[in-house]
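Review this fold:
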Amino acid sequence: MRILPSLLALACSAALFGCQQPAPPADSSPPPVAEPAPVSAPAAQSIGAAEEIGKRLEAGIAGEHRAQTDRARDAYRHPLETLQFFGVAPDATVIEITPGGGWYSDILAPYLRAHGHFIAAIWDESLPDQPDYYARLNQQLADKIAAAPEVYGEPELRRFNARAPSFGAPASADVVLTFRNAHNWIGAGNAEAYFKAFFEVLKPGGTLGVVDHRAKGEAATDGSTGYVTEQQIIDLATAAGFRLAERSEVNANPADTADHPEGVWTLPPSYALGDTDREKYAAIGESDRMTLKFVKP
């Protein structure tokens, strides 16, 4: 993906990972997430019920292991409502695609620890000619998880080749989630390969959840500003074999005009223009985002 020179030092990670915050130092030991009450046998039989999902997600979102800078993004990213919309049950096998510093991983891994399986799909930094930040962000995430097994359990860090993505054995996952990543694949010209790989790894009936910065109008974009149209994502998913199940406006922001000088990175939390018009962009908040749920037939 093309990133403007003025952003390279400041926003390389933000451009690729949806402006996620850096992981805490490896030597920090955050307190454990509060455990929800034990699940009764009848509740266990309907573990995907909305009330059970909400109870367990709330415990993870409220956990003291989450950085204050990450908590500040909840007002824009609506993690509880988003994961409820995608129907992420606590006994599911869930793959999060390129989680970066782990903003959503901090919620998903504790949530899935007892009954499910969390897989962070990360780039294989050992392959030739990989960007330096692949190794750096992979190590940050690994260190954070290793420092607090009482919080994260034993999630899997599954490496993949971005040039030929594959995310595991066919029909082995219940849910694939991607947050603010698809514009990067469109910019790199390999979005079709990603969506085909999502389709392959999901079980029949499995869910693909996509959140990304939403462009205005109907004209397709090249992803270079961070914004893409809903129709671009829908076309990619349906071409891979998915069915669009539902759309949500939970992450919508009508104040975002999507035409900023430095693209989506003009807005918080990146503030690519520094102090220039900072109050203006702070008032807008984070980007207007599509939230799309697809199902593998």
Remarks:
- The domain at 43-295 is CATH 3.40.50.150 (Rossmann fold).
- Residues 172 and 200 are 9 Å apart (CA to CA).
- The two ends are 31 Å apart (CA to CA).
